[in-house]
Write a structure and sequence with these properties.
The chain is an alpha+beta fold and 176 residues long. Helices cover 28% and strands 44% of the residues. The strands form two sheets. The protein has a four-stranded antiparallel β-sheet with strand order 2-3-1-4, covered by helices on one side. A four-stranded antiparallel β-sheet has the order 6-7-5-8, covered by helices on one side. Strand 2 and strand 3 form a beta hairpin.
């Protein structure tokens, strides 16, 4: 039975960070299963899931710890295998897309509405940019959500539309 390790890392952005992490994972006999990585401001952040031999788990953690000496903040958590497909079948995946003028509270409103209906936010990506001609702040958000099968697509679509209207943004729903 393999071991699963969740790792988060953040540090000043520079070329080669992904290589440093991926090399240590591979050399320890682990496989990078799933990851999210991004530059945020001047920082690079990643979160990933690696799997490999249980007897090599400590060696993997030790090999990654030297990155802390290079100024990276890091945390580890041993975890379980990803959810079995049978358990996931009780939920339906959807993509929620939001676009409009940037203002406070958009992410919170959508996250709160999802949580209150037992909808799990599995992935969320936001971006603020400036409009090319006006320089106005624009906001975009993509959410991947897992919706209980008991919630109809029509109810979900009405919720997303209402939230978009309340916050003055375009909000749409599509199969995930």
């Amino acid at each position: 039975m393999p071991a699963y390790l969740a790792l988060s890392l953040i540090g000043t952005d520079q070329p080669g960070i992904v290589d440093k992490v991926a090399r240590r994972i591979r050399r320890s006999g682990f496989n990078l299963e799933d990851s999210r990585m991004a530059v945020l401001g001047q920082e690079f952040g990643l979160i990933l899931l690696a799997s490999g031999p249980r007897d090599r788990l400590v060696a993997l953690q030790d090999s990654l710890r030297d990155l802390e000496d290079q100024g990276f903040l890091m945390s580890f958590k041993e975890t379980a295998a990803p959810t079995a497909a049978v358990e996931a079948a009780a939920r339906v995946p959807y993509r929620v897309s939001v676009y409009g003028m940037d203002h406070e509270g958009i992410v919170h409103a959508f996250a709160e509405a999802m949580a209150s209906r037992e909808i799990n936010v599995e992935a969320l990506e936001t971006q603020s940019t400036l409009a090319p001609l006006s320089g106005s702040a624009l906001f975009s958000m993509e959410m991947i959500v897992a919706v209980p099968a008991s919630l109809s697509p029509g109810e979900l679509r009405a919720l997303v539309t209402r939230l978009g209207d309340e916050h003055g943004v375009d909000a749409s729903l599509s199969p995930g």
